[in-house]
Request: fold
Amino acid sequence: MSAETTLLATQPVGGNSDDYPAPVAAWRKLLRNPVGVTCLAFLLLVVAFAVFGPMIIHSDPANVQLELTNAPPMTGGYILGGDSQGRDVFMRLAVATGQTLIGAVIVVVVASLIGVTSGLIAGYYGGRFESVASWVSDAFMALPGIILLMALYPVIGTNIRAAMAVFGILISPAFYRTTRAQTMNVRHELYVDAAKIVGLSDARIISRHVLRAVRGPLLIMSGGLMAAGIGIQAALEYLGMGNPTIPSWGAMMQDAFNNMYVAQVPIVWPAGLMALTILALVLLGNSMRDAFEISASELLLLKPAAVERIKAQRAAEPATTAPKPAGALALRDGDLLQVTHLTIAYPTTKTTVKEVVRDVSFSVAKGEIHGIVGESGSGKSQTAFAILGILPPTARILGGQILFDGFDVLADPQQQREFRGRRIGYIPQEPMANLDPSFTVGSQLNEGLRAATGVSKQAAKATLLALLERVGIPNPPRTYDAYPHQISGGMAQRVLIAGAIASDPDFIIADEPTTALDVTVQADVLELLRELQAERGLGMILVTHNFGVVADICDRVSVMREGRIVESNTLEEIFAHPQHPYTQMLLGSTLEGAPLRPPLSVAEEA
Amino acid sequence: MLRFIGKRLASAVLLMLLVTSVVYVLVSSNGMGIARMLAGSSATQQQVVDRYYQLGLDRPVLSQYLAWLGKAVRGDFGTSYLNGEYVTNMLSTRAPLTITIVSVTMVLTMVISVWLGITAAVKGGWLDRFLQVLSVVGGAIPQFIVAIVLVFTFAVGLRIFPATGIVPPSEDVGLWAQSLVLPVTAILVGTAMSGAMQIRGSMLVELRKEYVATLRTRGISEFSVLYKHALRNAAAPGLIGLGILTVAMLGGTVIIERVFALPGLGMLVTSTTTTGDIPALMGCVTITVVIVTIVNLLIDLLMGILNPKVRL
Reply:
């Protein structure tokens, strides 16, 4: 049975009580969702069919009219035709629908009584009850419910409602798990502590605060649980374990299936009604989840047409808003890397964007270190990512050009991929987050080196071991065979530096390479970078927020603020004669004993 | 490692005891009912009572269970109440077909859900949305409705595949494989779609991590970044999902085997429960728990191999 897959598909995606808006607002949101409304309307129709169907036609569902055996719809007073024994399909379907819905309700009631109660106790008090309940819950989930239900057939017999109650017990772990998790979340909230201090009883706290938090996710799961119950019920009846004197969807399907070579129409009614009902229940659960939970799982991707429109808009606007950067020109002809008028944006809605890099131009010569300085969010890392071609999928480059060794890498992503690793190396900011946790240090560096240079595995290993030694790792073979979680942050950063220079690139992009490191390690790593750069004559971009780092190592500096380069010059000039107020402020904040920085107003900047 | 396996096995034994005792005690508590089921509807009251005493159903339920358990741990599951066939023999002739169906479905589920899930996570857009709709529909519709639709379309309508029954592989491998296509597809529709959504979700989380970008900057191919590095890190939730799906598949075979008239374990479960054949029924329950335990143990071990931080 697909009870398990149904549950897998309808599990709430977690989150805590704060993710659920006020119920009234959520219901209103649900009623605005066309899928949710359609499902709700359909389910009401099904209920109406079950209630009023038998009233419209006063015939006995067991009544046999032999001449109407397998009759097509609309013959002899049989609206939906007759079955293989000449009974009224419409009447049987209506009665069966009622029976099915009652069974589904039993499942949810039993499962919620057991699951919610035990989940509240386990989540609120924990202790031995929790360990036992959780073990039982895991055990139930590990068994195919239908096989257990069938095994109990000699006891339960043809009483399908009793079988559904047992199924409610078997499926109650679904409610138990969610309730327990939500309760544990809420229990550690400050307002619950406060309620305890005030002296409210546990029962009061649970009903006031905890139940409020769990009811949203439970309601969402109920749809899936009812659907699972309907599926199991029909399966049991299909297998002949229901009461043969009461019409049921499963028995109707079995009858029609056995008759499939004689008449193909009768299968459509029970199978179609059941499929649609289950689908409506599950989709209703999903739209409830959309309404109750604030989800951000969908990527906001701009369509090409929207990008073109925004580009056209930009081209039409006069470029008066962009003040020229202060200082010397950052862009020189003939440099290894030339970035011109680079503009990068992220979508804020489906049609609007926020520019995070605006009209940025600079160039870096071979053997030169160019510092890009700015606060977080100034667009310096985004600029670096664009050169490497590793911007997140939602980012869009709205304009500009990046030339590396004369090749336009934005126009030719294939060329850009060729340069990555082979001619441009990258040293990231957060050493631990930038190593694949599932592979050893050696294997991931080795794969990269082989991809870039095509050397053999052994040759790559020899090169890497020598490099690890060069970057100051005390025991290279041990680090080579270690997993990332087994080495320190400082070691990891040295590993990443080795990874960046292993394939002997002529350019390095280092994104805050020392920020995540211990102060004592920072100076060592900077020293290492400077040595390597000098040894190999590397061109380098060093992204940092720290003017101290810049002073240590850079030849030229660009200062970025809110996506723009506001000033660009040689290191000496920047330190001796900072022209832009923002540069002056950044410098001021790094100098010891300097006066407190004054607030920077927009007027001052212009 | 050994300690981990030992712990899991102990838990499995406990589960086995719990399930078998509950089922045995509940079923046997209705001893006279069992005797009536076995004797058939035409039997006289005296015949039913005779059968009741003959099978020892009059003894205390607990001692019956302990007697069964004592033999079962030595591999003796007794003989069928119906025809005296050894239960182990009944199980061993039926299990291969069911295990074939489940393992073929499992492998296909893994392959399809990895491929679809990664493609949806990377490509996004209409493909992603289409897959989301498909997964809700595929996951929700009961397997036997899918089976019925498949039979009416491909067997009754188009006559491409046989509707029911199976040809033994020893007779004709081609026909044997053909008769498995529809049953496997019927289960696969739901499991592959649910699996794909699982993989999609965990891949989306993984692809946003920084190490993925760093791997790309070293010139490593996109295929390796996705299928070797990101997938390995995204595998844990997928494997947990696969465990749940295997349970779903085992349950599904009961009804699928009935629809397609396949003589597997599922069919045996159906016939033993409706006839009151307690020894055969207990055999079916036991082998189900064993299969689930083995699959979950394999999945746990696989997780330990994939994730170096898990020390088994």
